[in-house]
Amino acid sequence: MVSLDINGKMHKVDVGPDVPLLWVIREHLRLTGTKFSCGIGMCGSCTVHVNGKAERSCQIPVGDAQGKKITTIEGLPEDHPVKMAWIKEQVPQCGYCQSGQIMQAAALLAEDANPSEDKIITTMNGNLCRCGTYPYIKRAIYAAAREAGKK
Ligand code: FES
Ligand code: FES
Questions:
Q1: CA dist 20 to 32, 54, 55, 86, 93, Å?
Q2: Does the C-beta of 97 come closer than 6 Å to ligand 2?
Q3: Cβ 134 under 6 angstroms from ligand 2
């Protein structure tokens, strides 16, 4: 049995400590916004926040997530500047990678409110998109940074 703080709520889940966090989020808690793709830490579609940092949930044994604050795409407020910018800039195509992209971008802007182009490219580099939405993602990150700067 593990205890998890996900999106501000405590959950007890009857699984072993080695099960990937991604599996628990999707299959046990039915928070299916976080996506499974490569399963080997190479694509970023499973990105969540762990204590505010972007992490690949397919690579985290759920036992290691205990005592930490986990946020999934469902826990990011609907009026979060990154979510709003994604809509405004019409970033998604098929959408499959986008929750991971948004979580990665939100963690970037939490750490650096005004990132350089190099920082954006380096940070977002590990989040793959088969639909090639990279220019839209970059534009949306700039838009989110501008919007957040106004508040
Ligand atoms: S599914 Fe986790 S990095 Fe690809
Ligand atoms: S929007 Fe289709 S994989 Fe990224």
A1: 14, 16, 12, 28, 28
A2: yes
A3: no
Q: Which of 105, 95, 96 is nearest to 137 (CA)?
A: 105
42: pLDDT strictly greater than 60: yes
| C-alpha 101: how far from chain center | 6
Which residue's C-alpha comes closest to atom 4 of ligand 2? Answer: 129
Amino acid at 32: T
Q: How far is the CA of 69 from the centre of ligand 1 (A)?
A: 20
Q: Is 126 in the pocket of ligand 1 (CB under 6 A)?
A: no
Residue 151 has pLDDT above 70, yes or no: no
Q: In the β-sheet with 2-6, what is the strand arrangement from edge to edge?
A: 9-13, 2-6, 69-71, 47-50, 53-56
The bound ligand whose nearest atom lies closest to the alpha carbon of 38 is 1
Look up the pTM and report it: 0.96
What would the pLDDT profile of 19-34 be if each residue is shown by its tens digit?
Answer: 999 999 999 999 999 9
Q: Taking phi first (over 0 means left), then psi (-120 to 50 degrees means alpha), and beta for anything else, what does residue 52 get?
A: left
Arithmetic mean of pLDDT, 80-93: 97
Distance from residue 151's CA to the centre of ligand 1 (Å): 33
SS3 call for 59: helix
